[in-house]
Amino acid sequence: MSINNESKKEITINSTIQLKGIVKAIFNDMIHVQIGGKIISLPASNILKSN
């Protein structure tokens, strides 16, 4: 599935994507991020490990 005909990038299973969001809250080991109209919760350990 092509995202953009000019860039020829493809999304496949286990591919990495980047999303920009706003951190709304941090509780214990969970970071709550707003992306669009949704707030998702992510383990802080996963975020810190990838940077």
3D architecture notes:
The chain has 51 residues and is mostly beta strands. Helix content is 14%, strand content 35%.
Give the SSE layout.
Blueprint: E1 22-27, E2 30-35, E3 38-43, H1 44-50
Antiparallel strand pairs: 1-2, 2-3
Summed up, what is this model?
The protein is mainly beta and 51 residues long. The chain has 1 helix and 3 strands.
Shape type: extended
Structural class: mainly beta
Beta-strand percentage?
A: 35-45%
Query: Helix proportion of residues, in percent?
Result: 10-25%
Low-confidence stretches: none
Total strand count, please?
3
Q: Return Rg in Å.
A: 14 Å
What count of helical segments does DSSP give?
1
Relevant terms:
51 residues, 35% strand, mainly beta
